Amino acid sequence: MTLLAALPATGAYRLTGTGRWRSAFAVTELANASIAAVGLELARLIEALSLAPSAPEVTVDQRLASLWFSYSFRPTGWQLPSLWDALAGVYETQDGWIRLHTNLPHHRKAALRVLGCAGERSAVAAAVRHWQAGWLESEIVAEGGVAAAMRSHAEWLTHPQGRAVAAEPLIHWTSPRAVRLRDRPQATAARPLAGLRVLDLTRVLAGPVSTRTLAGFGADVLRIDPPGWDEPGVITDISLGKRMAALDLTKGEDRLVFETLLADADVLVHGYRPGALDGLGYGADSRRQIAPNAVEVTLDAYGWTGPWAARRGFDSLVQMSAGIADAGRAWVGSDKPAPLPVQALDHATGYLMAAAVLSALTAAAGGAEVPSAHLSLARTAELLAGLPESAEGPALTTSAGSDYSEKIENSGWGPGRRLAPPLWIGSKPIRWDLPAGCCGSNAACWPE
After folding, report:
1. In the predicted model, what is the mean pLDDT of the chain?
2. Cα–Cα nearest to 320, from 71, 96, 29, 28
3. Is residue 62 part of a domain?
4. Is the whole model's pTM more than 0.85, yes or no?
5. What pLDDT is stored for residue 228 in this prediction?
6. Which of 325, 351, 188, 185 is nearest to 269 (CA)?
7. CATH number (domain holding residue 206)
8. Half-sphere exposure of 117 toward its Cβ, with a 13 Å CA cutoff?
9. Residues 353-366, mean pLDDT to the nearest whole number
């Protein structure tokens, strides 16, 4: 079986709907193709498992695919919390611009320790102006924080990390092994992933998008967070269809629970940087010993080779590093960094991760050895940089009421409506059996 290696050709799926994000880059085209990759790999799996006589047709709604790259949930009678911390954002330096990511308390504290200023935006802006962008970036990262200086694409391609990422495949398949798929008699053409156990060890945003997508076709997704973890502003989007549990992997009793869950998992999806799981005692050899038949797909921010392979990062930071924010600045005619209209690197990488899971399952169903898949936001950024524009239609600015399902979703925070499905496999749309729920709101166990 051929494993997924690139975006599908436009002619491989049916495209409906109109509208596109205005951008210096082909954001809508990336949305169409990455979501279509999920559909096409799922269609192949349906055929491989003999759930249908042939692979069903895949349909992507361009408008809805584009909108799913933004927020999919609209609250009714209440408001979502802000996605961003008050200090997060771009600041002017002596020689350019830098973006600080301070949503997590320890990242905020790290930036303030380096800057030596009060935790107010005006004080941070004044302090940042005394620094060169690259030097401040290095100091914040060394302190355990996250930041990214703005670079042009040309500068990125000459940077050691940019060169390393450009040489990596879009999906790095590695360490093939025999995988025996568990029987799932509940699987059907309509719910082909029913009974598939997916252990989710991911955080904002790409990894959770991948597992949300698998849940949309019937997979039992169990997400494990540290106790007390939360992701205000995005958790209503990415906990859809999942059970949300909490375990402290530094405690013996929780480790035993985790190892039992992993042993019974069909798929492991995680977003730990290279070597990070080793520090918890769950390196690659240990994971394979515990779960020899689990398909594994993982991601990081800056790629799997090069000097920044272990660097923490997020979509907004990779856009700064890889030349996207600089190209956007030139495109809009501004002197400030101009990011993409949506967090396209996160969403596209998430859908490609889900497609990689499906591709691996198809290979296993055919008796082939199954490798693990590594993806990164930075490699998706390089994909986007070379993607030609072809989408047509009016510019998208926001969603309309008609873009949402009429069904009320009773999330863990309150009622709301979810965007209509962007993807159809034959006559069946992607759909979710569970509403979005709060972190830690479920027991750490597989459903009966």
Report:
1. 96
2. 96
3. yes
4. yes
5. 93
6. 351
7. 3.40.50.10540
8. 15
9. 97
Tokens coding 161: 């990390």
Region for residue 34 given its phi and psi (left: phi exceeds 0; alpha: psi -120 to 50; beta: otherwise): alpha
Residues paired with 376 in a beta bridge: 300
Q: How confident is the model at residue 232 (pLDDT cuts 50, 70, 90)?
A: confident
What is the amino acid identity at position 230? D
Q: Is the CB of residue 73 less than 8 Å from the CB of residue 409?
A: yes
How many helices (H) and strands (E) are present in the chain, helices listed first?
15, 19
Query: Is residue 293 included in any domain, yes or no?
Result: yes
The C-alpha atoms of residue 65 and residue 70 are separated, in whole angstroms, by 9
Length of the chain: 448
- The answer to the question of residue 212 being in a domain is yes
* 291 and 221 Cβ atoms separated by less than 8 Å: no
Q: Which residue has the tokens 């998208």?
A: 396
Pairwise CA distance, residues 388 & 366, whole Å:
34
pLDDT digits over 156-177, tens only? 999 999 999 999 999 999 999 9
What CA–CA distance (Å, rounded) separates 68 from 208? 13
Residue 169 within a domain? yes
282-299: per-residue pLDDT in tens?
999 999 999 999 999 999
Give burial (CB, 10 Å; 0-12/13-18/19+) of 307.
exposed
In total, how many domains does the chain have? 1
| Arithmetic mean of pLDDT, 413-421 | 97
In this prediction, residue 1 carries a pLDDT of: 60
Residue 272 has pLDDT above 90, yes or no: no
CA pair distance 261, 268, nearest whole angstrom: 10
**Residue owning tokens 């750490």:** 444
Range of the domain at 295: 13-72+165-303+341-397
Q: Give the model's confidence band at 148: pLDDT under 50 very low, under 70 low, under 90 confident, else very high.
A: very high
C-alpha distances in angstroms, 237 versus 73, 232, 341?
A: 6, 10, 17
171 and 373 in contact (C-beta within 8 Å)?
Answer: yes
In terms of C-beta density within 10 A (0-12 exposed, 13-18 middle, 19 or more buried), how is residue 165 classed? buried
